[in-house]
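lol forgot to send this yesterday, sorry. struct tokens for the thing we talked abt
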């Protein structure tokens, strides 16, 4: 069977050279005589794997030494609780921007732990854009501002980094991490689930400025305490070894093609192909405001639920998989992460043109 173009929002495509390398190393890794999937995380065979993954990620994202890099479990959703448990003191305040479903979940979770407030939202407008916030919008004495940098379900993205002054900025970057260069120093904490743009599911990356470690609540579970994990090199307990290995292969692959500048160039080219087509016709509607369009998740609808359904079925049959929009919003969504080749987007646009021709609207 031939490989398809998989437009899934996550878990999603991985670069073919990475899959081929992992396949070649699956049974016997290097001189270890075993698979990475079988290795003790404390063995001399695994240690260089996790250290290289971290070093390559630091190089790729230009992460300064005063930031810790953690490879954790539990998905981005676990960080929705870990963030307040680590940064929101008893009796303190935390500010949230709700720009989509995941930031809404993060906000709801934080309310369990204290005074969390939504200081801006685009919900009344169907999350078609990202609100603009600046330090003047923050509440006096707030411990951090939480944002979701790329809204996977709605297909919007911050086109600016909020200026929060001395207040730490915390960003969920699950669906845009390592898609383009980002100035890490503008953030207190960056976190991301692996399964969108880094690796198979099972690993969560947390990049945290070191002065923010050690502020956790006494009730913070040990496993959610970033300091415990930082002090133990992400190995307080068994880390997601195999996913860390796969993420390492992805970091190495991006470095080999020219780093995040080149990654951005490729991603912009793919996204432009699709958005330019959307802008050139009026069969499909792209609901997101142009200046907040995501480079990773592209949403569109025909305006007719039956046609949307037909589109999903026929595109699947044509080898363009998982184009159905999120169950909460309907329509279509093409996730075109790092691993999606340009040809995949060309095939999609050709399919869209063909579908529009064959299925005129009443
Ligand atoms: C997918 C996603 C999540 C949820 O990730 P899990 O790893 O499934 O918990 C959270 N935030 C964003 C932005 C996502 O895209």
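and heres what i got for the seq, position by position
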């Amino acid at each position: 069977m031939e490989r398809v173009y998989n437009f899934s929002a996550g878990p999603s495509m991985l670069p073919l050279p990475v899959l081929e390398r992992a396949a070649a190393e699956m049974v016997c890794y290097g001189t270890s005589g075993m698979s990475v999937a079988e290795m003790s995380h404390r063995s001399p065979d695994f240690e260089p794997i996790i250290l290289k993954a971290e070093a390559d990620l630091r190089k790729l994202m230009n992460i300064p030494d005063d930031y810790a890099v953690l490879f954790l479990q539990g998905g981005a959703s676990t960080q929705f609780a870990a963030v307040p448990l680590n940064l929101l003191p008893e009796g303190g305040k935390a500010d949230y921007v709700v720009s989509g479903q995941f930031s809404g979940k993060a906000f709801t979770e934080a309310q369990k732990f204290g005074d969390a407030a939504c200081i801006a939202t685009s919900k009344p407008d169907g999350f078609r854009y990202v609100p603009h916030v600046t330090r003047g919008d923050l509440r006096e004495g707030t411990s951090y501002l939480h944002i979701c940098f790329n809204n996977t379900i709605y297909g919007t993205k911050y086109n600016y980094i909020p200026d929060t002054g001395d207040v730490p900025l915390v960003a969920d970057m699950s669906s845009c991490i390592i898609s383009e260069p980002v100035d890490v120093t503008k953030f207190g904490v960056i976190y991301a689930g692996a399964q969108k743009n880094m690796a198979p599911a099972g690993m969560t990356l947390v990049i945290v400025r070191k002065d923010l470690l050690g502020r956790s609540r006494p009730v913070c579970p040990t496993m959610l305490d970033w300091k415990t994990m930082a002090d133990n090199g992400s190995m307080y307990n068994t880390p997601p070894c195999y996913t860390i290995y796969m993420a390492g292969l992805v970091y190495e692959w991006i470095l080999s093609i020219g780093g995040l500048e080149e990654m951005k160039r490729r991603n912009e080219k793919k996204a432009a192909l699709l958005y330019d087509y959307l802008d050139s016709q009026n069969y499909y509607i792209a609901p997101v405001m142009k200046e907040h369009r995501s480079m990773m998740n592209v949403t569109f609808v025909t305006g007719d639920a039956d046609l949307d359904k037909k589109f999903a079925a026929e595109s699947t049959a044509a080898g363009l998989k998982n184009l159905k929009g999120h169950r909460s919003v309907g329509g279509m969504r093409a996730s075109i992460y790092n691993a999606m080749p340009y040809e995949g987007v060309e095939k999609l646009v050709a399919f869209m043109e063909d579908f529009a021709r064959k299925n005129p609207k009443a």
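DSSP finds nine helices and 13 strands in the chain. anyway ping me if u want another try
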